[in-house]
Amino acid sequence: MRFKRLFTRTFKLAACAAAGVFALSVAAEDALPPAIPEFSGLAKAKWSLGKYGRESAKDGRTFLTVTVPADSPDKSGMNCAETQVDLSKFRGESLCFMIRVRAKDVSTPRQSYNGVKFMLNYKDGDGREFWHHPSNLKGTFDWRETSFTVSVSDSAGKGRLQLGLQDSSGEVEFDLSTLRVFRLFPRVNQNYKVKYPKEVAETPVLRGVMSPHTFTDDDLRTLHDWNVKLVRAQITRDWGKSNTDRDLAEYDKWLNGKLDHLEDVFRRAEKYGIRFVIDLHSPPGGRGEDRNMTMFFDKKYADHFVNVWERIAKRFRGNPSVWAYDLVNEPFQTRPAKYDYWNIQRMAAEAVRRIDPDTPIMIESNDWDSAPTYSYLSPLAMDNVIYQVHMYAPGQFTHQFVHNAFGEQGSKADLIKYPGMIGSEKWDKEMIRKHLKPVRDFQLRHNARIYVGEFSAIAWAPGAADYIRDCIDVFEEYGWDWTYHAFREWDGWSVEHEGMPGRLSPSKGNDRKDALLEAFRRGAEK
């Protein structure tokens, strides 16, 4: 995980629970799941229009328009109409909010998540505040559907739905008659308890790192010297780019070269006792502009994804260096999809199991494999499955001044510190534990082995070593496997570098490296 933000549009889902799995529908492309009746009144709700909003009606439809003049002194602020939304009946669920919108001459905001605003904002019972919305909506465009998803907190109450502009001038119009809210991911297999073969169940906690893009012999020797037992080997390219990996013949040629390299690495690593997770970081079809994976919506890429895993399983079954198959890195789905993030992994897992009955399979959750989505993640009705989570919360701390992902303002001397108040919350080890609670609950409910595939804090973050140490303490307390992001991949995440943005240099030793090596050392002594 590097730069991750909510981007959205819309499509279709038809999935239902049947015989312990979701049954994929072959309904028309424009089919949608049924809208939730409790939200049907939003279109006709009483909207507080603000200074620049107005409502109108045409042909039986209701429209909400917000127009902010270019010379307005208010254009840098929030100029939205809003109404109240009651979330209390939907705690722990995943909801998709969708509406049609068009814009004219909306100026470019300072942050990509501003501009046209379609946002849900609420606080939960613990005082934590949440904002959910699409991004990159600006300029002039005709009617289009936009959407966002919400993992509703277990203590959510009332919130505000806001429509308008933020930090922008121009005009935006919403068709309130098209405002709908859907349940995205039905829960199934809620009583399923995962079973593991003896050799997996009795394997002690595995600790390690996320891999470089290619391995040298020095890399393997260094990892051995560090007491690393597990490496998540990423198969990746063009990270952060959109509309990649569409040419499947070219994709396969690239993939085969990466698999050839990994096979050689696995052979060389045997003498060091290092095991590997095969991580398909870049799936066929890549991601769209909204960061949703293309294969969720296009059968050609969905079929190829399953075929890729059949080929990987045939090639690596029985390989002693392979610990697990990590089916897809950080799925991201914000709108209804024909082959949703859960089903497409189920399909690939079933295909792998027909070829390789022994190697553990790893499943990742939605929204960049984030911990809150475990509140609605369903387990597969399959044994020997390990469930993976990534931990970068709070992003304002871990990703500060990484591609301006969180709209950083001011000087790079104004860095956010850990532990301490970050936004409206006090972040310390107890807050890390609270953030990971949905994963812990899933572990206990389903007897699941949990693996933290990525966690980190950027090299210049004050208190990064404390954050790494506190995360590891919680992982160890819960018996979770983990791999630090990342080893010799990018200097910003490297514990072999230190410095400030744009001024990183190799480091023989630093407190982040000390925290990581101390954990590897403790693990080797157990």
Characterize the structure shown.
The protein is an alpha/beta fold and 526 residues long. Helices cover 23% and strands 29% of the residues. It has an 8-stranded parallel barrel, surrounded by 4 helices. Strand 20, helix 10 and strand 21 (481-484) form a beta-alpha-beta unit. Helix 3 (248-269) runs parallel beside helix 4 and helix 10 packs parallel to helix 11. The protein is globular, with a radius of gyration of 23 Å.
Q: What topology does this entry show?
A:
Layout: E1 15-18, E2 21-24, E3 53-58, E4 61-68, E5 78-86, E6 94-106, E7 115-124, E8 129-132, E9 139-151, E10 156-166, E11 170-183, H1 198-201, E12 207-210, H2 217-225, E13 230-235, H3 248-269, E14 275-280, H4 299-316, E15 322-326, H5 341-355, E16 361-364, H6 366-369, E17 385-391, H7 395-398, E18 420-422, E19 425-427, H8 429-435, H9 437-446, E20 449-455, H10 464-478, E21 481-484, E22 497-500, E23 503-506, H11 511-525
Parallel strand pairs: 12-13, 12-21, 13-14, 14-15, 15-16, 16-17, 17-20, 20-21
Antiparallel strand pairs: 1-2, 3-4, 4-11, 5-10, 6-9, 6-11, 7-8, 7-10, 18-19, 22-23
Helix pairs in contact: 3-4, 4-5, 10-11
In short:
The protein has 526 residues and is α/β, with parallel strands linked by helices. It has helices at 198-201, 217-225, 248-269, 299-316, 341-355, 366-369, 395-398, 429-435, 437-446, 464-478, 511-525, and strands spanning 15-18, 21-24, 53-58, 61-68, 78-86, 94-106, 115-124, 129-132, 139-151, 156-166, 170-183, 207-210, 230-235, 275-280, 322-326, 361-364, 385-391, 420-422, 425-427, 449-455, 481-484, 497-500, 503-506.
